[in-house]
Design goal:
Elements (H helix, E strand, L loop, with lengths): L35 H9 L4 E4 L4 E2 L1 H11 E2 L4 E8 L4 E2 L3 E2 L4 E2 L3 E2 L3 E3 L2 E3 L4 E2 L3 E2 L4 E2 L3 E2 L4 E2 L3 E2 L4 E2 L3 E2 L4 E2 L3 E2 L4 E2 L3 E2 L4 E2 L3 E2 L4 E2 L3 E2 L4 E2 L3 E2 L4 E2 L3 E2 L4 E2 L3 E2 L4 E2 L4 E12 L4 E2 L3 E11 L4 E2 L3 E6 L2 E3 L4 E2 L3 E5 L25 E4 L8 E4 L18 E3 L5 E2 L4 E4 L2 E4 L4 E2 L1 H11 L30 H17 L3 H17 L6 H14 L5 H23 L7 E6 L8 E6 L12 H15 L10 H29 L2
Parallel strand pairs: 1-4, 2-5, 4-7, 4-8, 5-11, 6-12, 7-13, 8-14, 11-15, 12-16, 13-17, 14-18, 15-19, 16-20, 17-21, 18-22, 19-23, 20-24, 21-25, 22-26, 23-27, 24-28, 25-29, 26-30, 27-31, 28-32, 29-33, 31-34, 32-34, 33-35, 34-36, 35-37, 36-38, 36-39, 37-40, 38-41, 39-42, 41-43, 43-44
Antiparallel strand pairs: 3-4, 9-10, 45-48, 46-47, 49-50
Helix pairs in contact: 4-5, 5-6, 7-8, 7-9, 8-9
């Protein structure tokens, strides 16, 4: 059980348990001075005077009297020299608007017998430091703000410390200027924290701070090193149009909702470590190299600008702070660890590396140089629907392959699938509707998706991922087959035939099945019509001259006769099989055939070796790594 240390200053004797400091020349603290004694003390103050009110309880009227005594007649602004308010208590609103602290401003920790403890400075009402100027160091560590704390347009020329402070009401630091080092480590913000348009011209430290409500850093300027290590954002964290000049490590921190980095600029090489529900890198600009390590998050990279190589990866182990503390991700435990990318629209991917990410719902339309995108590690794309469906009157199922989200959206549009209600999971046996479903004008068409598959196939090929490249080649051909704008009808007919026979040379089972069917048909035709009833015998004919001499013979044989019965016998099957197998390897069997059999063999020798080659090609494409 902790006890309150005895203050180091002389305590007031005006009332039992009063912790206020004794006013020099008196035996009581300022609130307990009355009449002429108080007036005499206030009269002794002037602009720039030192004020020591440690442990004192200040009401709004008493604070107003102090400020009036310190007001410069020429400027109308209260001016403090050194101001000591450690352990003070403000009962009611504390209005320091436009005040100037030319010396050290102490609202912070106190030292008792060499040990350090939080001071008990307490603002029970609103604390107003709007347009206040702090020329020296300002110490607000451990301060408790029960209501709104307003520092709008305040100027801190020296070091500003808010470590361990507690802001129960809204903390408004709009347009504040911190020229020296600023510290908010361990601070608690129980309501909205507004740091929009703040200028951090030196180091800024927010280590282990807690933001219960929204934290807004819009248009903030971080000129020095900045640390958000171990910070917990329990709602949104917004850094829209913020600028980081020297920050080398952004994080690691946790955000239970959305981290918005819209238009944020990172000028120096930086590592971002973020565990969040969602991270929006919309129009984010990286002017130097960057590594983005994500956990649990869905990231949106739309319109981001990458001036140097940027790597976005899933970080599989827990983040640790520079002091080796494990960052607590308890509130994100319900989400998978792996990061997901939802959009790359408008991004020049020439400098982008993606590692161990889920791209199942990623939109690539509008991105540039996708052929130069590097895909490493375990990259997941959307699968085709599972289960059986009906194609005309026939049951069918989709063969497994990687697909782009844009193909899902187009097929869902064509199939007339309805978008599920918000929060309801999609059935895995149907194509996924897009964000603009069912508006056709906003859904990519096959001619749009063709180019995406073609460029990303090149990315797979450069990464030596042949199976991935094969899947995207299949997707490219599928979109060309369905493209009624850029693909002529004749080409679509050839593509349909190519798809039916062998799945564009990638479905070995289909090619083998068609080859087997072709061989069976060939055998049946040969047995029924192609093999003659009997093998024609050779006949030699000639004329012997009457007076003797040379005899000339003509060797011939009858044309093969069509069979009239006993067509489907074992002997005829062996002959037909021999002819067919020789046709598959493009070799003549030498078997006597009828006219029908001859043309059948010719067709077989043309088609069946082609089907065999397609099957071999498909097998090679699937197993090559």
């Amino acid at each position: 059980m902790s006890t309150t240390p005895t203050p180091s200053w002389q305590l007031c004797g005006g009332r039992t348990h009063c912790r206020g400091i004794v006013i020099p020349g008196h035996t009581k603290c300022l609130p307990h001075l009355v009449g002429t004694e108080r007036r005499a003390y206030l009269a002794s103050l002037g602009p720039g005077a030192e004020v020591d009110l440690r442990g004192t309880t200040l009401t709004p009227p008493l604070l107003e009297q102090i400020l009036n005594a310190l007001t410069d007649p020429a400027t109308g602004v209260p001016s403090f020299g050194r101001a000591r308010f450690d352990d003070a208590q403000f009962d009611g609103d504390a209005d320091f608007k436009k005040a100037e602290f030319t010396g050290r401003a102490e609202f912070e920790r106190v030292h008792f017998n060499g040990s350090t403890d939080f001071s008990d400075v307490l603002f029970r009402g609103a604390a107003n430091f709007m347009e206040t100027r702090f020329s020296g160091d300002a110490w607000f560590g451990g301060v408790i703000f029960d209501e709104t704390a307003v520092f709008i347009d305040a100027d801190f020329s020296g070091r500003a410390t808010f470590g361990g402070a507690r802001f129960t009401g809204e903390a408004d630091f709009l347009s504040v200027k911190f020229s020296g080092e600023s510290t908010f480590g361990g601070a608690e913000f129980l309501s909205n924290a507004i740091f929009s348009r703040v200028q951090f011209l030196s180091e800024a430290w927010f280590r282990a701070a807690q933001f219960v409500a929204d934290a807004l850093f819009d248009e903030a300027q971080f000129s020095g090193q900045t640390s958000f290590g171990g910070v917990q954002f329990h709602d949104n964290a917004r850094f829209q149009l913020a600028r980081f000049a020297e920050t080398s490590l952004f994080g690691p921190f946790v955000c239970e909702n959305v981290v918005a980095l819209w238009g944020t600029v990172f000028e120096a090489p930086v590592t971002l470590e973020i565990a969040a529900h969602e991270v929006q890198f919309i129009r984010t600009r990286w002017e130097s190299t960057a590594t983005v390590r994500l956990r649990h998050a869905t990231a949106d990279l739309s319109q981001a600008v990458l001036s140097a190589p940027v790597a976005i990866v899933t970080h599989h182990s827990h983040f640790t702070t520079p002091t080796a503390q494990v960052v607590d991700e308890t509130h994100l435990a319900h989400l998978p660890v792996g990061a997901r990318l939802s959009s790359m629209q408008g991004v020049d991917a020439a400098h982008l590396v993606l590692t161990d990410l889920d791209l199942s719902d990623c939109l690539f339309s509008g991105a540039f140089h996708l052929d130069q995108l590097r895909l490493e590690g375990r990259i997941t794309f959307a699968p085709v629907p599972t289960g059986w469906h009906r194609r005309g009157i026939f049951p069918a199922r989709w063969t497994r392959r990687r697909t782009l989200a844009e193909e899902h959206h187009w097929r869902a549009q064509v199939a007339g699938h309805s978008a599920p209600p918000r929060g309801v999971l999609l059935s895995p046996n149907q194509w996924r509707p897009g964000p603009h479903h069912p508006v056709p004008e906003l859904t990519p068409d096959p001619e749009d998706v063709v180019a995406l598959y073609r460029q990303l196939r090149k990315a797979f090929e450069d990464g030596k991922n042949e199976p991935g490249a094969a899947d995207f080649y299949y997707g490219e051909m599928e979109m060309r087959r369905h493209d009624r704008v850029d693909t002529p009808p004749g080409e679509r007919a050839l593509l349909n035939l190519y798809w039916f026979l062998s799945g564009y040379g990638l479905r070995a089972s289909r090619a083998l099945a068609v080859l087997t069917a072709a061989m069976v048909i060939t055998i049946l035709i040969l047995m029924g019509l192609g093999l003659p009833q009997h093998t024609p015998a050779q006949e030699a004919t000639g004329t012997v001259p009457a007076g003797g001499g040379r005899v000339t013979f003509t060797i011939d044989k009858d044309d093969p006769k069509n069979p009239t019965g006993g067509r489907f016998t074992g002997e005829r099957f062996d002959q037909a099989l021999n002819v067919t197998l020789n046709s598959v390897i493009f070799r003549s069997s030498g078997q006597d055939l009828t006219t029908t059999g001859t043309y059948t063999e010719m067709a077989s020798r043309l088609t069946e070796p082609t089907l065999l080659a397609l099957a071999v090609l498909a097998i090679r494409g699937r197993i090559k790594r």
